[in-house]
Structure formats: C-alpha cells, structure tokens
Design brief:
This protein has 200 residues and is mainly α. Helix content is 54%, strand content 10%.
C-alpha cells in the first residue's frame, strides 16, 4: 500500500516485483532485466564494475551518479531540505523522508515472505530477515549437522555391551606393565620374560 499513486507507479516501474514482458535486456551477471539497453549498460557499469567517477572534494567518498554526490554534499553542509508535513523533522534525502512519513501513516509496504510481517522500510525488512529467519536456518542446519554427527558416531562405535567388554579386557591386560618398554600383560611371568630379553 502506497501513500501516493505516484510512488506506486514508480515502484512498479523500477522494481523487479512486476515484469510486464517489456524488459528485454537481461543482465548476464545477475537476474535483473531492463526495458532499455542504456539502463542495462549503466547497471553493469555502476553495480558490477563499481564505476564511481563522482568524488566528494571534502571527504573523498565516490559515487556512481552525480545526483548521489549532490545528496552526499548535504552531509557536510548540514542542509536538510526535505521537511515532514506531520512533525518538525527534516531530512537530507526524499527517500529518507518517505520512510519517515510511513511512521505517521502506518504504511508498511515491505512484507516478509517467510512470516508475513510488514515493515515501513526496506532496511527494517532486511534486518528482520537476517535476524529472524537466517538465524533460524543456521540453527536448523547446525542441529541437523549435530544429529548426523551423532548418528555417524553411533554407527562407528560398538554397542555399549561390547564397549564394556573391551574396557574390561584392557583393564585385565594392563594389570602388569613393563617399566622398560611400557608393554602390558595380564600375567606377571610374561613381564619376567620381557625383562630377561632386556637384560641380555
């Protein structure tokens, strides 16, 4: 749901949620597609080749578009031309103002595909997905790996009764130990024989 029809039209035109079949120019690197070849060229140049020719003379930060650099200058100048009609706050960019206005209107156009929860900003939506659903996925994967590891260990180790028998046998064998070579024996006379071998 959008506050103004203009925002909805702009959203439909420039986002990937609707493809009317008029986006003939597909990016060979990512799934994006464009109506015009020129838009595809600009996309590849700025997104994939990281071409940023517009540099801030104050801090050295670079931008792909001159309009982005002009918006950035407001960080240094303190200019905030976009004023909220509901409260006294003002912002450096119209996009930030739009997100802020949603707090007043209650509009939440960004819906989570996993749980259906809605958000006022794309950033809040992405943060929710990272914190909630990606952590759940990671936990499920870790839990699954632990279960697989336990199953593997159970398959590799002998049954408890056999383990107990092996331990008892090792204990019986280790009653007598040679001080020279650390060999074990259940009978003392075997160690006497080993001692004879060492003394010769």
């Amino acid at each position: 749901m959008f506050t103004y029809a203009y925002y909805r039209e702009k959203h439909l035109k420039y986002t990937r949620c609707v493809d009317r079949g008029d986006r003939k120019f597909r990016c060979s690197i990512c799934p994006r597609s464009f109506e015009k070849r020129d838009r595809l060229r600009i996309h590849v140049l700025h997104v994939h080749e990281n071409h940023r020719p517009h540099v801030c003379s104050t801090c050295g930060k670079s931008f792909s578009q001159s309009s982005s650099l002009n918006k950035h200058f407001r960080v240094h100048s303190g200019e905030r031309p976009y004023k909220c009609i509901f409260c006294s706050k003002s912002f450096t960019a119209s996009s930030i103002l739009r997100t802020h206005i949603r707090q007043h209107s209650g509009e939440k156009p960004f819906q989570c595909a996993n749980c259906g929860k809605s958000f006022a900003s794309h950033a809040a939506h992405d943060s929710h997905v990272r914190r909630t659903h990606q952590q759940q996925e990671q936990y499920q994967q870790q839990h699954q790996q632990q279960q697989q590891q336990q199953q593997y260990q159970q398959q590799q180790s002998p049954p408890p009764q056999q383990q107990q028998q092996q331990q008892q046998q090792q204990q019986r064998c280790s009653i007598y130990r040679c001080q020279m070579c650390q060999k074990h024996s259940s009978m003392n006379y075997n160690l006497n024989f080993i001692n004879i071998v060492f003394t010769q």
